[in-house]
Structures are given as structure tokens and as C-alpha cells.
Amino acid sequence: MAEPTDTYSTAADDEVPDLLHSEEEEDDDEQWHCMEEDADGVSVSCLFCQRSFSSVPETFQHCQSEHGVDLLQLVTTHRLDEYGYIKMINYIRTAKCSGDSLAGLGGALPWDGDEYMKPALPDDPLLLIDLEDLIGGEMKLDAAPGGQVEGKDQTTALLRKAQQAEERAERSEEALARAMEDLHKLKVLAQGLVLSAGRAGPSCSGAVAELQEDEDEAYFSSYGHYSIHEEMLKDTVRTESYRDFIYGNPDVFKDKVVLDVGCGTGILSMFAARSGAKKVIAVDQSEIIYQAIDIVRSNQLENTITLIKGRIEDVDLPVEKVDIIISEWMGYFLLFESMLDSVLWARDRYLADGGLVFPDRCIISLAAVGDTEKHSDRIAFWDNVYGFKMECMKEVVIPEAVVEVLKPETVISEPAVIQVSKDTDSSTLTLTVVLNMI
């Protein structure tokens, strides 16, 4: 970011009302001048040795030439924001790590914890620089000692940081609105895929692989918001069924390499790790993967579980083959999410001979329901809306499926099994076979 102009500084000053002068104010001015004089003699300590330098740029150059650590490169490589940069500096000082230990960092960063927001060195000049200026190459060797901003420029810098924080908040709100819109798009898209699946020919390829870029983004963006994961975790029938199966079969998971496709918050991965899996690889394209990393660390399972962000079709796993694939791929009416395609792709690419896929069998059932209360609420409602007839709305309401928790007494028939899937770990089960079942 370019340095603020004098016009901007003057405008900022104009917003500050004139204050009455007093002896106390003069004392403050004298203290401020003393602080400015002290800044001229600031000492910047090296991150890796006992040497000190008169400026931040000089310290950065020393770290690169003497210790082989390019701090600017670390910032850009790991895409650190201001908070990430602060955490990195405090981590290096706290852990007293060597330059070599920073060279091979990958995946989760060791300074992600909030404890590294606390300065390891009081009044550390390395924490007072502007990160955007640092990346933009505007920090020169003739900069103020310690990289500090003095006088009015310091006020301007603080105003700029506040403005940046406000912009980040606005972007977060916009991202949330887009996520809600993407969720609606996903619903419409998946409905179309399910309704058209029965007409697919034998040449039908993967539904997920065929998604356009914007549709694919909408699919994964909808899973970046916490609400969908909260809904799934609170589905106790589903989650406890996975838990009881995995915990109840430790001999199946003990010392095995497990792949979790679409891991979400990582709940299935943690079940597998607790059941004795030697290694668990969890893959998810949505932004929830970053919360999953924190969750795994909070439960001290980071040595067993490796988390990878990306589509399973695009990422490179750290192993050639896995012994078990687990996934919570079932959507509404089983196939609503079209995620089975990715599970079958992972099976064909990574599953070792004799490997297992769970769940390995699924059933679709139908039952008749008679719920006069829900019928009145959704259908009969349109007969009289504030004294007006709106029966035509029934034509668009009735064909749309709804997801409901039913009272047992509303089920008025025995459930009828309309389809049973083949074993998902069998190579004979393909997406075409699944679509022909519908």
C-alpha cells in the first residue's frame, strides 16, 4: 500500500477539534519529544542470535544473509496477514527455533495459536512495522530506526489500520451473504441433478467432476459456513451411528491408513484415530478445513491426522494407497448431494487391494405419511391468505421436497425398501450403476 499523502494527513488532522492548551499538555509534549529522541536509538534484536541492529531492514538483511531465513518470503509464501506476521515473529523468538526448521514448513503453521499474539520481546520493533509496506518493498534501509512511524505519520498509520479492519469486517459480511446465496444455488443444482439422474445414459461421467467452476464453488462454499456442520453433528442418529460402528470395530481400524473424503469438522477422522488408526488423511475443499485443523490440535490428534485442503480429485495424498475410506457422503434422499461420485473416484484411485469403504451399503425406503397439521401449514394455507385466494401457489409448493422430522404417529404405512445399493468397496459399483438404480 502506498504511503498516505500529506493531503490525507491534513484531512485527518482537520477532523480533530482544537483543544485548550495547559501546563499538563506542555508536559505531554515534552514527554512525546523525549519518546521521539529515544526512538532514534532503538535497537532491533536478531531473531536467531544475540546481535542487534539499528533498523528493521538491516535486521531482515542479516537474517537472510547470516541465517538463511528470508522473512519477507515466509510472509508471502504462507500468505500471512498482519496477525499472522505478528504470531510468526513471536513464535520464532519464543521457540528459539533455527533457520533450518522454518525452511520446510508445510500445511498447518506452528504459530497459529493465539498465545503468539503476546509479544515475546517487550516493545519489539519488528512488531511495529506496516506489513503491507513491508511486502510492497517500501521499507528501505534509510527508514526510521526500528521501522517505527513517527509523529503525524503514526496517527495516519493507526487510522489506516482501523480502516483496514473495517474493510475486513465488511468483506466478512459479504462472504456470509454469498454463502447463503450459494446454499440456495446448491439446493437448486442438486435437485436438478437428482431429477435428471434417471435419464442418464451409460456414458454418464462423474456428476461432481462435471460441475462448472462457479457451480463447484457454490457447492463447497455452502460447506464453509458452520451452520451445515452444526446441523449434521446434531443429527445424533447419523453421527452416533458412525461413532458406534467405528468404536465398536477397533480390529478393523487398528494400525490402518484411513482416508476421510469431505472431512468437514473432522469428526469421522477423530473417531478413526481414537479407534486405533495408524494414520488418517482428511480432505475437504471448503473453508471449514481451517477450523478442523484447530479442532484436531485441540484434541491432541495432530500426530495421527493430516488435513489437506482441496478436492479429492485434485490433491496429492502423502501415501500411494489407503486401507479404509470413510465419508459422510449421504445427502437428503441418499443421493441429494452427488458426493458419492467423489467417494467412488477416491476408491478407484487410492484404495488398496482388499480395502474397505464405509458406509458400504445403503437403503432407500418410502413410507406414507398423514400429517394434517403440516398439510394445513404448507398446502391448505394458500386457500385463504388474509382473505385472498392463492391456490395457484400450491402448484409450486407441492412438487418441492421438504426435509422434516416426523412424529411416529404420522407414519401410516410400513416402510417399503425401494433400493439397496451394492457394496461401495466393490469395483463393480459405478456412478452409472447407482443412477440406474433410481
From TrEMBL:
| InterPro entries to which the protein is assigned, alphabetical | ANM3-like_C2H2_Zf, Arg_MeTrfase, Methyltransf_25, PRMT_dom, SAM-dependent_MTases_sf, Znf_C2H2_sf
Domain Protein arginine N-methyltransferase 3-like C2H2 zinc finger: where?
74-119
Segments forming domain Protein arginine N-methyltransferase: 362-418
Locate the region Disordered: 1-30
Alphabetically, which GO biological process terms does the record hold? methylation
Q: Which residues form the Methyltransferase domain?
A: 258-355
Q: What does UniProt give as GO cellular component?
A: cytosol; nucleus
Catalytic activity field: L-arginyl-[protein] + 2 S-adenosyl-L-methionine = N(omega),N(omega)-dimethyl-L-arginyl-[protein] + 2 S-adenosyl-L-homocysteine + 2 H(+); L-arginyl-[protein] + S-adenosyl-L-methionine = N(omega)-methyl-L-arginyl-[protein] + S-adenosyl-L-homocysteine + H(+)
Q: Where in the cell is it found?
A: Cytoplasm, Cytosol; Nucleus
Residue ranges annotated as coiled coil are 152-189
Q: Which Pfam families match?
A: ANM3_C2H2_Zf (PF21137), Methyltransf_25 (PF13649), PRMT_C (PF22528)
Q: Where is the composition biased (Acidic residues)?
A: 12-30
**Enzyme class, broadest EC rank:** transferase
Query: GO: which molecular function terms?
Result: histone methyltransferase activity; protein-arginine omega-N asymmetric methyltransferase activity; zinc ion binding
Q: Which SUPFAM superfamilies match?
A: beta-beta-alpha zinc fingers, S-adenosyl-L-methionine-dependent methyltransferases
Where it mainly occurs, coarsely classed, is cytoplasm
Composition bias type Polar residues, residue spans: 1-10
Q: What is this protein called?
A: type I protein arginine methyltransferase
Give the species this sequence originates from: Astyanax mexicanus
